[in-house]
């Protein structure tokens, strides 16, 4: 690693730019290439201008962005109190709460959609917004909570001492400090909501459509590739615009913060903080409502309560309608999610470090890479999935049908989350801390190992847990890929839900319960991990 | 065992932060780089450390060019203004860091930690969390951490300026003693001349990217190289040498240059009076011009006699006039 | 550095599993609902020496479009699951290769898509109106027209033909029944009688329908002829309101292992596979003389005179009909 640094800045910029090629290469091969290929295919058929000038199209755009923005606002507002409790409160059972918050993320959209339909039988905009927010409260709670847990409490105390009321201190001191994490979370949530599919389909009551559902319909049902390509381009443009806005907001906010250990900051809530705890409790209760509903459905039959659905999980269904048992499907899920998380962590952490390095060396590529990494969240899964079909056969061994394609596609979705969770903490690390280590004899790799890794350790573990959960619940990308038949739990649930009969339905809900249990167990387990050589931080 | 800075130039885009600077530091010597903020002194220090790249010139150690040697292989210790302790390690863990990098045996390491903590007056702090230390304690740990691997050269970047005044003065004295006891070769960057003169064997005055003067503290204090330097060192009034009975063209007066004393040769009228910590500061009119002076309590309007205090004078070598 | 190596290793691992094709491996591309009894498949693999690798994804529409997109370099050797709605497109695009299966004239020919001999009917899954017999005791509708009776106001729930395959089948059924000129009038009246439209089968059947375990508010729903077999006599299909959907299989044009693929196709049309499609996939076997499970014979017999539209007619009219339906029912 020790090479002469004759032209330190320029040289390091070159090095970081080269390093950026790895994540960019991953994106290029598994994202840009397939997406561009399928869009080009559509463009060749013509008819783009027609779609672009249609009033229908712009209504779609407006509704898509509008509902996503609304859901993002709801998710941020409801996620903040939960983030506060996760980050700052010493309360019994916090570990379980942290894990439980993740549950909505893995629930299949069809199950959540049906749960919301139970309250709003005719669907509509409100349930769409709420359901999208429901899925994403965890993103806000975890991303913001991650930074909040390490920001110094003293600035807030100082503001209070200067006579600021608690809300005032929150608005003027705490919120600006959390802004980078909130911005990160909001960007992710927005993209998830803008591309949400099942929820809009089920709760839109065939009335409300978004770019995502329309791209799906045109591609799959109508085989109107040119129309789909036009809409994909619009989706692309909208997503990039939103990401750039987010990047601008972040650039102004992300600064070095004095990071502290959570242990020193967490305490029992006092006074008005209990109100926040109560608000968080209300949010968690609301999140749990559909969960309780599905557990009830997994237990109830016409003739009363029964565990038949759960017993069936050990089998391949009522008449052997599944190719694997529920338990095997759970194992498949775990395997795929592990692969996806590993790939995403590697690419994501690497990207985050490259982003920091590029920024430090003053390169402008940093912003571009940052935005590029987020794009996969904002592009239709069907576009990517179909794109794979027309490109991946060029890779050695016909990659279109490789068992690795599913985890790779999932990693594409998980990577931006890892980056967004690790980056704010990494950026908050004072550069001079690394320099201090270097002057003490630590080479670049050692600095990374001794300073960066321990400091981001916690958020890295959190990112891994989060990424794992996303991969566990991922259905959109998975369902479009032609995959060797090793169905995961979400796939099995979807299959069971599409069959008539009480037992199939019970088993579907029991599989959901199993998915939730697996999720909570995994998150608890992952969060127990400590990054080697890091102290308690 | 000596550092030689040769014609170092560092540019940031259009601005030249360090402009063709040369400086030697001998073995065991403590040199202070003294200058106003923004003069390029920190950049020079960071260049010596290897954290900045020089556009021109070389940093040499015992004659060897260090340009190609990365930071971590230079063996120079660095103390930042605000410590920059590793928050995820306790006090001992911080001090041990450089020793671990140097693969020092654990036993030796532990002994060395104890030694250093004793040296900086923090014996028994081994297992404290660094985030719970006061600012002064943090700086002591930072110093111990930098000293632990026995660096060839210690670089201190405004090591005391983040502390409050009383602590700063106390620590400056402690630090001077420590550096002597450790026999360290050191380069201290500071904007505070008290600090520079307390710590350093030699002081280098830096302004606008250039070193204007290098010399022992007393010499620099008594004979600043030019008017700007004299101003930076506290002179706010310049008079012909004859005014204070010297042969020089020009002499700079500090606030303490004139003292009320019945035995004095100068005579003036008190215009204003301000009580300071341990003296009274006066504004006195002498021959139609206003001068600062110190003295015992007097009333405004009193006529007083004044003596010249040699320590308050800066003797300027003859040079073309201007700059006042 | 280690990370780069890891990724490289992962990619290499992915490749290496692909580079050594087994001599008798056949890749079967299907939709998500494909299912086969493991014993039946195992026995076939054992006796034929062929290993069947299943590639499953999406629904019939996705499957068809995937096959079209990859027709130059197919992702498998044969495909199952292209249905009568999409058959024309697949045939038009030249996705399938001809093959005269010895099993094709054992009943499958009754449902053939065209005369090219490229697609072979594997099963039939009719879409019919289902009713909750308990809720409508003694007052059951029988035909399309009955659904317009004020007695059944606010009783029917259907799926959106734009987003749901049974929804589309029901729409096609009304078009076949009332003709290009009459179906819109029928739907206008259906709308006036309070038909509820939801986007998918899951919402319609498991949530809105009163005869399923969801115990919803509406006793009449568009589902499959086979659905009552799972509801223990609480529901039944109205056999005069059915639309025939056929699922086909065919050897893919450009298959790497066409010879073995043909044997797998024979297997799909053969007695053993056909005997288990009802239980596995809730569809009716295309082969003649294959007995249905007992519960089916009583609760879910195969409709005798379902509505039907020629595949090419469906291909040409579908988009227009769905658009007209949208304006009419949702506009």
From TrEMBL, chain B:
InterPro entries: AAA+_ATPase, ABC_SmlMolc_Importer, ABC_transporter-like_ATP-bd, ABC_transporter-like_CS, P-loop_NTPase
Annotated ranges, domain ABC transporter: 3-233
UniProt EC number: 7.6.2.9
GO MF annotation: an example: ATP binding
Stretch forming the signal peptide: none
EC class of the enzyme, as a word: translocase
Record-given protein name: ABC-type quaternary amine transporter
Keywords: ATP-binding, Nucleotide-binding, Transport
TrEMBL record, chain C:
Signal peptide from the UniProt entry: 1-19
Keyword Cytoplasm: no
One Pfam family from the record: SBP_bac_6
GO CC, any one term: outer membrane-bounded periplasmic space
GO MF annotation, one: thiamine pyrophosphate binding
Organism superkingdom: Bacteria
Keywords (A to Z) from UniProt: Signal
Keyword Cytoplasm: no
InterPro entries in the cross-refs: ThiB-like
CDD domains on file: PBP2_TbpA (cd13545)
GO biological process, one term: thiamine transport
NCBIfam families: sfuA (TIGR01254)
This protein's name: Thiamine ABC transporter substrate-binding protein
